[in-house]
Amino acid sequence: MKLINNSILIFLILLISGCSSSRYDMRHDSAPLRKPTLLEQLDAQVVQVNKSTAAKRPYTVRGKRYYPMLSEKDYKATGVASWYGRKFHGHLTSNGETYDMFDMTAAHKTLPLPSFVEVTNTANGKTAIVKVNDRGPFHDNRLIDLSYSAAYKLGIYQSGTGNVTIKALLPSDAKIPGTYIQVLAASNLVNVQTLAATLSKKYKLNHKISQVNGIYRLHLGPIKDQSQAQNVLSRLKQNSHKQAFLLYSQDKL
Question: For residues 118 and 129, is the Cβ–Cβ distance under 8 A?
Answer without folding.
Answer: yes
